Backbone:
């Protein structure tokens, strides 16, 4: 198979996994992805794993083929509840990743209800089209234990 075809298929698997997650609130099992892609189950599994390796923040539950996280979403419950247009069925991968949901669902209201892992106080952020519409408390800040400079981010941004 030509490398360009493989890359195109991997990008499509990445995109379709993300779109499924947006629609359903969970990532597709590779057998579901196979029907979407029109590929065999084995090929869909291969493509989904390749897409997870190529993207940022996508991985599988330990020793399984179940998607645990597909940035910016988590398929397992976290303390970062994501509500889109009044419908709460998503979870954010982490507090800062949750802020990226607004870019995945343009023109829709995204509400993130989270809890500070230090003091357990609630934090709510409402966004639309990348803009913060409201934040409570207004003095809320984000924290990341890993510097952005630790990864190669330039080659990861072309999947959508």
Residues:
């Amino acid at each position: 198979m030509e490398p360009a075809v493989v890359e195109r298929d991997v990008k499509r698997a990445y995109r379709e996994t993300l779109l499924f997650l947006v629609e359903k609130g969970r990532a597709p099992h590779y057998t579901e992805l196979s029907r979407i892609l029109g590929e065999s189950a084995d090929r869909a599994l291969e493509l989904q794993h390749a897409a997870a390796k190529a993207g940022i923040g996508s991985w599988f539950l330990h020793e399984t083929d179940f998607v645990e996280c597909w940035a910016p979403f988590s398929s397992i419950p976290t303390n970062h509840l994501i509500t889109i247009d009044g419908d709460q069925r998503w979870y954010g991968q982490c507090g800062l990743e949750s802020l990226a949901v607004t870019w995945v669902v343009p023109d829709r209201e995204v509400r993130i209800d989270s809890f500070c892992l230090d003091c357990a106080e609630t934090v709510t952020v409402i966004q639309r089209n990348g803009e913060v519409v409201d934040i409570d408390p207004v003095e809320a800040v984000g924290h990341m234990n890993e510097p952005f400079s630790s990864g190669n981010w330039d080659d990861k941004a072309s999947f959508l």
